[in-house]
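Same chain as my last thread, 174 residues:
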Amino acid sequence: MDYNKIVTATIDVFRECDVHSFPIDCGELLKHYGYRILTYKGLLEKNSELYSLCMEYSEDAFRSGSANIVAYNHNRPHGRIRFSLMHELGHHVLNHTGVSDQNEKEANAFASYILAPRMAIHYSRCKNANDVARLFDMSFEAADNAFIDYRRWHRNVVMYKMSAADKAMYSHFY
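reply #2:
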């Protein structure tokens, strides 16, 4: 997976949507890109055919680009919903078409980075996954994955310096 592609897409969203603090407002970002947000229950009431299609794809969230709808399962935990919504935004901003393992990995990476950029984890002085979960309003599982990745990122920055994408992230926030 291309780290710079994911971080660059994240920075582009931050710039376009004027994001300068955390936790981010997932609903506002999706609305900015023209999406209506519905719960699965609301989607069922509006369009049972689209609801059936979304249930075939995911129990968490679903995006219909042609209908400009992102639907999510309101029975999931709050942090999981936030991650799922940003996963769907990732598919949009990364211009994914079709379903593939690579697209899913990229959308997951995008969701993780937009919710908790590694640079923001660093400057927030997070000591562990609990800090990340609390500060960035994430599930513990997503925060733990982000913190593990942050430690890898930090070692890389210490050894090799910041990448161009890291410098762009730094200049946007700091």
